[in-house]
């Protein structure tokens, strides 16, 4: 190892204060930086002051309490959409357990979930989760507005934003026993529009660069991994390509992570004309995001090496 070159992901600083200064020159410059990072790596590290240390600790504690519930309770979290409900006890990835909260930036969505898990109520869970999702959704919207502005497609982003829904995925990886493989989650790209990941103090997330190297992402309470999903690739005519990532577990501590995922509902995702020309012909037909999620979970979709292309490639 020793001299092996370890590339780093770009780190870009964000502040809640910035979300309204969308015309300042520093905002525009940052937008160019963000877009370049997404084009080059499919993701970047955002440092963000929106989640205080206190809120960080509170949501990870809430997550721990959630996973401590009996399996019979956790499986009550079902969904019509693949991988949006409870996922666990999968032989290929025995360390992994995930629970999804749909409409996670709304009081209704979060309270519905809380009631399902704690029928007699657990106000602190709803309160902290909602605080977290709202402030991280602001980061998502800042990033996407910057990308849209730098491509000159802001008005198209406005209509996408109006149809954006947020799924909060709470994830636990138990520490591997001697007989376990240490694979936490298999290499994959996200089927989302965008994903924002956050991990507790236990590392494990690895991201593959275009050169095929795996980069470890160091956990920090103020760092978020902003990552493009397949739907973003279709929207940007392939300019932004999602990165493959996986989780590898080591040591004897359990790992908790949070993913705030965006999906586009009730609107077909169409590549803006501004991104299509003779040198950049249209790559993807208009995409129904939820139908794509079902396709991806079908036998045909699972067999496909590149499901986005087999589903809606031109
Ligand atoms: O746990 C992590 O850090 C990554 C989770 C992930 O990649 C996913 O849920 O799609
Ligand atoms: Fe992922």
N-end to C-end Cα span:
43 Å
Structural class: alpha+beta
List the ions, cofactors and other small molecules found in this model.
2-oxoglutaric acid, fe (ii) ion
Overall residue-averaged pLDDT value: 95
Residue fraction in strands: 15-25%
Total number of distinct structural domains? 1
The total strand number stands at: 12
Report strand order across the widest sheet: 1-2-10-7-12-5-4-3
Q: Which geometry do the CA atoms define? A: globular
Could you say what the CATH architecture is? Answer: Sandwich
Largest sheet geometry: 8 strands, mixed
The CATH class designation is: Mainly Beta
Query: Could you please say which CATH topology applies here?
Result: Jelly Rolls
CA-based gyration radius: 19 Å
Separate helix tally: 10
Q: What is the string of helix and strand elements?
A: EHEHHEEHHHEEEEEEHEEHHH
Helix content: 25-40%
Assigned CATH superfamily = B-lactam Antibiotic, Isopenicillin N Synthase, Chain
Uncertain runs: none
Task: Give the SSE layout.
Elements: E1 11-14, H1 25-41, E2 43-48, H2 53-67, H3 71-74, E3 87-88, E4 96-101, H4 107-117, H5 123-151, H6 154-162, E5 164-173, E6 183-188, E7 194-199, E8 205-208, E9 214-216, E10 223-228, H7 230-235, E11 245-248, E12 255-264, H8 289-297, H9 299-303, H10 307-312
Parallel strand pairs: 1-2
Antiparallel strand pairs: 2-10, 3-4, 4-5, 5-12, 6-11, 7-10, 7-12, 8-9, 8-11
Quick overview of this protein structure:
Residues 163-266 form the Fe2OG dioxygenase domain. With 314 residues, the chain is an alpha+beta fold.
């Amino acid at each position: 190892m020793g001299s092996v070159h370890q590339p780093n992901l770009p780190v870009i600083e964000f502040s809640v204060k910035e979300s309204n200064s969308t015309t300042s020159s520093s905002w525009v410059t940052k937008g160019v930086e963000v877009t370049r990072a997404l084009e080059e790596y499919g993701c970047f590290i955002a440092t963000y002051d929106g989640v205080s240390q206190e809120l960080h600790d509170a949501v990870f504690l809430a997550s721990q309490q959630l996973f401590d519930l009996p399996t019979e309770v956790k499986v009550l979290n079902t969904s019509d959409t693949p991988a949006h409900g409870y996922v666990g006890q999968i032989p290929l990835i025995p360390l992994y357990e995930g629970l999804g909260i749909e409409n996670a930036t709304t009081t209704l969505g979060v309270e519905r979930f809380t009631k399902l898990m704690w029928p007699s109520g657990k106000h602190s869970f709803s309160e902290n989760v909602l605080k977290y999702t709202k402030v991280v959704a602001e980061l998502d919207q800042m990033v996407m507005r910057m990308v849209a502005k730098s491509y000159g497609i802001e008005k198209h982003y406005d209509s996408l934003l109006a149809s954006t829904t947020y799924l909060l995925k709470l994830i636990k990886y138990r520490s591997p026993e001697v007989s376990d493989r240490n694979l936490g989650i298999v290499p994959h790209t996200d089927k989302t529009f965008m994903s924002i990941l956050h991990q507790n103090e236990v590392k494990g997330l690895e991201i593959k660069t275009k050169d095929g190297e795996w980069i470890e992402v160091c956990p920090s309470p103020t760092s978020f991994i902003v990552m493009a999903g397949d739907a973003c690739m279709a929207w940007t005519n392939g300019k932004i390509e999602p990165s493959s990532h996986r989780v590898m577990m080591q040591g004897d501590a359990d790992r908790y992570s949070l993913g705030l995922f965006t999906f586009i509902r009730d609107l077909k995702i169409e590549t803006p004309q501004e991104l299509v020309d003779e040198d950049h012909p249209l790559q993807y037909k208009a995409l129904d995001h939820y139908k794509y999620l079902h396709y991806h979970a079908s036998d045909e979709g699972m067999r496909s090496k590149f499901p986005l292309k087999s589903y809606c490639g031109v």
